[in-house]
Specification:
With about 325 residues, this protein is α/β, with parallel strands linked by helices. It has helices at about 5-20, 45-60, 75-90, 105-115, 125-130, 145-155, 175-190, 205-220, 230-240, 260-265, 275-295; strands spanning about 30-35, 65-70, 95, 115-120, 140, 165-170, 195-200, 220-225, 250, 270-275, 305, 310. Helix 3 (about 75-90) packs parallel to helix 4 (about 105-115) and helix 8 (about 205-220) packs across helix 9.
Amino acid sequence: MKFTRRSVQTAAALAVVGSLLASPAFAQDKPKIALIMKSLANEFFRTMEDGAKAHQKAHAKEYTLVANGIKNETDTAAQIKMIEQAVAQKVNAIVLAPADSKALVPVVKTAIDKGIIVVNIDNQLDADALKEKNITVPFVGPDNRAGAKLVGDHLAKTLKAGDKVGIIEGVSTTFNAQQRTLGYQDAMKAANITVVGVQSGNWEIEKGNTVAAGMMREHPDLVALLAGNDSMALGAVAAVKAAGKTGKVQVVGYDNIGAIKPMLADGRVLATADQYAAKQAVFGIELAQKALAAKTPQNQLPATVKTDVVLVTKDSK
């Protein structure tokens, strides 16, 4: 190849431009967003993670994503460490599905004090705990109480006044567990159906199974189990089968995970609620993106952004 004086000058000029663009003054680093979830043993959160990764892939030029989740639903200490690591990595924003509504607030304040935008999804942080720390964190998610009432109302149509049911609650220190229990209780009260007990299944299949089995032993005339999520509903279905009560004790859940669909189809589960797991994190990420782009301070972000929740039965399309 023959090099002319002009081509050498052009190459030199391009090299200078390239080095300038590569320098810190010209660097256009993409914001880094950390998605920190609850247990990835729960299909709901794996679906959430898949949705977030698909969104990042489609918007790869706009931001980078670091996704992580704890091993079990109650490992709050591990989730706190994940937030501390995200702060140390100097992420620009954190989208958090907290394992505990109160225990995560102090480390969230630490992140906000470092200038990191924090968005709350799935399980709402405790309002009093946030107020005590003098911080505001937007909650992006559905009305869990309303969603659970949809499921409870559907179940109530198949029952009669005076029937006995039990509620298998999620982790009792979480706001969404409390709200779903309240929604179920609202529906049962409206139909004059008796709730014989509320016990925590910690959002997990095995614990849900244990609680369901215990409730049926204690109350042989129990006609339904209302589970705060589909993982616990899976455990309840297994307990109903083991007790020889399939078709006699109905089960409902919440989340519409893939594993529940064949059970809806054959009647082992009567109903669940879909709060669109794949979109949950995306809604939070998009709010964080907008805040970063507009340089909106944490305390000026909207308090809540409501997302949809719908009833799902075997007849749902």
